[in-house]
Amino acid sequence: MSEKAPKPTHPHSPFYAHLSRLRFIKRWGLMRNAVEEDVAQHSWEVAVIAHALAVIRRDVLGLAIDPNAVATRALFHDAAEAITGDLPTPVKYSPAMRQATAHLEDQVCREMLELLPAPLQATLRSVMDTNEWPSEEAALIKAADRLTAWLKCKAELRYGNREFEQAAQQIERKIHDTMRPEVRYFLDTFGPAFDLTLDSLMRGD
Predict the structure, then answer these.
(1) Can you tell me where the transmembrane regions are (predicted)?
(2) Is 95's pLDDT higher than 60?
(3) Which terminus of the chain is more solvent-facing, meaning fewer CB atoms within 10 Å of its CB: N or C?
(4) Using CA atoms, how far apart are residues 85 and 123, in angstroms rounded to an integer?
(5) Residue 148 banded pLDDT, cuts 50, 70, 90
(6) What span, in angstroms and rounded, lies between the C-alpha atoms of 155 and 147?
(7) Domains with residue ranges and CATH for the chain
(8) Alpha-carbon distance 63 to 45, whole Å?
(9) What is the Cα gyration radius of the chain?
(10) How deeply is 62 buried, as exposed, middle or buried, from its count of CB atoms within 10 A (0-12, 13-18, 19+)?
């Protein structure tokens, strides 16, 4: 006999419908893109690379961390953009806007969590609210976020789009200034393949 599903206490939550709209929110909105990127795609790529960094940390460096928890938090790291949209980096991180942006994102996160049925809120808060993230997990997710942005810039440059030259240089400088052993291992082991064509990847060059 199958278990009877409990009757929802909050049957019409728009929470996941909001998240599904991340696919419509374009990144790099102030720049000409050879290939457009949306927030849903970006979130998946950050989650994959953050998971890889966590696995490297655990299995190569022998340090304690839960790769699955890191990947889950990374999937939700830009969830608030379902409401705010993607704020361009020059705006988001300008001295005048940094604190205001952080406050806005925190407020939107709280409001989105309140859309959930009460029994789900604590679990989703632990993955959406960056204030609740363990520091090492947060650091890996930030590193993965930078890596995906840099790889995007490099891809645009390969397509002949010089619009991303300065962004690539700035992000690469940040990566090296904040270099972690997990990131160094990822770049040395997996980085070169990102410059290969499909034929070269299939041949294993």
Answers:
(1) none
(2) yes
(3) N
(4) 24
(5) very high
(6) 12
(7) 15-193 (1.10.3210.10)
(8) 23
(9) 19
(10) exposed
Give the closest residue to 113 by CA, choosing from 141, 145, 83.
Answer: 83
Name residue, tokens 């409990």: 6
Taking only the tens place, the pLDDT of each residue in 64-93 is 999 999 999 999 999 999 988 877 766 666
Q: How far apart are the first and last CA of the chain?
A: 55
Residue 173 pairs in a beta bridge with none
**Nearest C-alpha neighbor of 78 from the set 5, 139, 127:** 127
Query: DSSP label at 74?
Result: H
- How many other CB atoms are found less than 10 A from the CB of residue 32? 10
